[in-house]
Design brief:
single chain; about 325 residues; alpha+beta; 7-stranded mixed β-sheet; 7-stranded antiparallel β-sheet; about 25% helix; elongated
């Protein structure tokens, strides 16, 4: 597949690209590069892992996409193993492109292509280096995020940056929604960065170390709500933890567990209530935070599909004086 010639203002020497990626986030960039005039010589992805309730051994999203495109795929347990290096050398790549690969990339791999490796990271570096930059940006209330294209170096997400693309974070957006937009932005940013490298116009600048913040991998503790905190603070945490790891609450009297899929600030005319108290008002399910109510707009009972609160309340009675706790 070839990219439209109208995209380029000047002729560019095409490159042989080796792509490293694993999850859904990395698929748009893979497809964009495969459709460009550059040559995709191979794809490296994480090994297949058991998924879902049946623990079936599904291919990674990048592997599935690469197979559809018709590009050879390597799935090493360790990308620096000699057999993996031999596979990559045989393809004679000139540049490596990394998007959410999921393994440490050693020097032997970083220096294999003559132009090295570049990575599209989902933050405005040096803010939010690490595994979960989108989630931590939403949780912190950042108004903007973006894609930074940088060199892959030994220190995580610390390489020199050659290109940045910014975008606003919507007031109601979840991490899943922002991630989907950034995946498309990463594809466009990488196309531009690869073109710049191909014709020798790329300029890399150090990130500096003054404004560095870290975005560590999320665990279940990230999704546990402290109901005494302000409603706006809880709302940011819910958006950041959706869809993964997901915010669950347990209704104490009803002995029901539910996941908050979407919420918003609730009405302010009910006055103060004990944090964690639940009330039903005109088909709305309200959860008291430290200073106000959250309205739980969309929720999911275990084993059920997500549904609006009014749908749930038509078949489920919330006991009087009900309260929530974190499981």
């Amino acid at each position: 597949m070839r990219r439209s010639a109208s995209r380029r203002a000047t002729p560019t020497a095409d490159l042989r690209l080796l792509y490293f990626g694993t999850p859904d986030f990395a698929v748009p960039a893979l497809r964009a590069l495969a459709s460009s005039s550059h040559t995709l010589v191979g794809v490296v992805s994480q090994p297949d892992r058991p998924r879902g309730r049946g623990r079936t051994l599904d291919g990674t999203p990048v592997k599935i996409a690469a197979t559809e495109i018709g590009v050879d795929v390597l799935q090493p347990e360790k990308v620096g193993d000699e057999s993996a290096l031999a596979w990559m050398r045989a393809r004679e790549p000139e540049l490596g492109v990394v998007v959410a690969f999921g393994q440490f990339i050693p020097k032997s791999v970083r220096e294999l292509p003559r132009l090295g490796l570049i990575n599209a990271h989902a933050s405005l570096l040096p803010r939010w280096r690490g595994a979960a930059p989108i989630e931590w940006a939403i949780d912190a209330g950042d108004p903007r995020t973006g894609i930074s294209v940088m060199r892959v170096v030994k220190e995580m997400d610390a390489g020199d940056v050659c290109l940045v693309r910014e975008t606003a974070i919507g007031a109601d957006e979840t991490a899943g929604e922002v991630s989907a937009r950034l995946a498309e932005l990463a594809a466009q940013a990488l196309l531009d960065a690869v073109d710049q490298l191909a014709n020798g116009r790329a300029v890399f600048a150090p990130q500096g170390s003054v404004r560095v913040t870290l975005a560590p991998k999320l665990d279940r503790g990230f999704a546990q709500l402290d109901f005494t905190q302000p409603a706006e603070r809880l709302l940011r945490r819910i958006r950041a933890a959706t869809p993964r790891p997901g915010v669950d609450i347990e209704l104490v009297r009803a002995a029901k567990r539910m996941r908050i899929v979407r919420a918003k600030l609730g009405p302010d005319h009910f006055g103060h209530a004990r944090p964690g108290a639940l009330r039903v008002e005109a088909g709305r399910l309200l959860l008291a935070a430290g200073d106000a109510y959250l309205e739980l707009e969309q929720i999911q009972l275990a084993g059920k599909r997500p549904m609006r609160a009014d749908e749930l309340l038509r078949g489920f009675r919330v006991p009087d004086a009900e309260e929530a706790r974190t499981p």
